[in-house]
């Protein structure tokens, strides 16, 4: 679950920037969120949640037009209600939709996907049982071109139509050929997600205009 508060005055004056907004991400994973049946021990020093929060802050600091909101703070709150795999990718996608719904201006829609490889087979959106050390996994966050309605063409020479890779996470060492296949699959999935996000956004805008 994702929510956005802001832009609003900075909580601490030391965080205030005269020419842009300060982006803060809070990531919470309660003990009951695990689907393995084990209750996690809550700790303020949980490295995984703090790492996720810091990385999401970095990602959206590149995406949000912070110069539009000087001397303000934008908070992203992420609450994991059920952790059943591909957690980081889901968090990024939820944050993208929450920022869009809050009317925060962004350069494009950040889309994330987790893909895995088992033998010659590629699959996306791994569940908890598929996230194991025997399956190489790649999580990628991309900025896709939202007005690109056609199929993805990775061989085009136009840089403007190419996705921008913002972040990658690889769980294990891979030969270059297999890594290229995982990267291509992740980009294809994020492209499909960007089309879905753009369709949702257009529907959201139409509904707001109809209400007015």
Automatic annotation (TrEMBL):
Native organism is: Opisthorchis viverrini
The signal peptide here is none
Q: Name one GO biological process term.
A: rRNA catabolic process
Q: Any one cellular component term from GO for this entry?
A: nuclear exosome (RNase complex)
Pfam families assigned to the protein according to its UniProt record, in alphabetical order: RNase_PH
Its family remark reads:
Belongs to the RNase PH family.
Put simply, this protein is called Uncharacterized protein
Which GO molecular-function terms appear in the entry?
RNA binding
Q: What is the lineage of its organism?
A: Eukaryota, Metazoa, Spiralia, Lophotrochozoa, Platyhelminthes
